[in-house]
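Journal club prep, notes for RB
We'll compare a predicted complex against what the paper describes. Inputs for the shikimate-3-phosphate case:
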Amino acid sequence: MNLTIFPGGPLRGCVESPGDKSLSHRVALFAALAEGESCVEHFLVSGVTEAMLRSLKALGVAWELSDDTLRVYGRGLHGLRAPESVLDCGNSATTMRLLTGAVAAAGIAAVLDGSAGLRRRPMERIAEPLRQMGVDITTAEGGGAPLTLGSRPPSRRLSALDYSLPVASAQVKTCLLLAALAADAPTTLHEPALSRDHTERMLRGMGVEVETSPELAGYRVTLTPPKTPLCPLRGMLPGDFSAAAFLMAAALITPGSELTLPGVGLNPTRTGLLDAFRAMGGDIEVSNLREYLGEPVGDLKVRFSPLRGVEIAGEWVVRMIDEFPAFAAAAVFAEGPSVVRDAQELRYKESDRIGALCSELRAVGAQVEETPDGFILQGGGVRGGVVNPHGDHRLAMSLAVVGLASREPVKVLGAEITRESFPGFPDVLRSLGAQMTEAYE
Ligand code: S3P
């Protein structure tokens, strides 16, 4: 589907962000490892979470989805069944990396594979430390999927680990913490910067002893293997901050706009973009702070604002790792340049987000210089044009948002990819006042 966005607006109204993607992956999987029935509302029903649910079914886990309420009948830490066929993780690296940790803990044989895009993502970053724990795991040539895990006798526990992650990564951290549930002693991980801590919060809520503390060069997390079963999960998931990010950017750049976004997850390890937009002069109010499933949540009010460029580097990058496409969509309309450094990890996301973002922003007339670990983006607005999101849901949404304030329309090819994380994204924008056409050419 090709989506053409016409400049205009204003955008006005109130819209709920879809359920958080990271948390949806975790509740489905962690609930499967609990004993008893979990029930979670506002689950994200989308391409990437379908990959997780499908794989769980293949591992013998029963679940039911009714609208966005997910019920999972937990099988306990050692209850996963060896799958009869390859676990298809689709396009979802979160599914693959998290499932691998759970499969390793269960000690069952399994093969995990996925789309051509997923096969390009680096998997040695989980395989290498898992091997140190005694897991029999191989990656394909080049270090990607398919991943093949061998079985282990039920009596043999994994070896506890003391490991420093070369890059801050919540997916790697979570994979290893899940494996550590089946280790013979506490496991300690050291991260150079604190990646999203949803796993630590959720496991603690399920009764697992997980301690975190800052240390000289980053953060440390220690998990003690539990002696009692994991408690089931019950509650409501926050709206996804990373989905709300595109609506925030849309409101900030479209003159006359004012949007209310209720129930958005505001975990401080995820909200670097809020700080970036505010540093750029963005008018964003947070109210009604509360907690859902151990995660901070609030309502956002975002108004059109003249923006100025900003420089993002260091740990700030980790706190907004998924938000550079949304950030760039606003930064092209700011006054003055925006600079991103220390963000080389972006090259290993759903696309090479530095290369792809720079080439597509250039296609709409932006002046942008690509650097090895980021980019320098001149503000002042763009012309418009035809863009290719490189099979990346966040790039597609970012480029659609650019079309709201460009001088001419922006046509996003293959825009159905937005369904991976934000089903109904074009309809939401339309309901707020955006002008667009969809074509199946
Ligand atoms: C995620 C962690 C991040 C993020 C991804 C989801 C998670 O990846 O980019 O969209 O749910 O743990 P890394 O942990 O590899 O940086």
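Talking point for the session: The chain has 14 helices and 24 strands.
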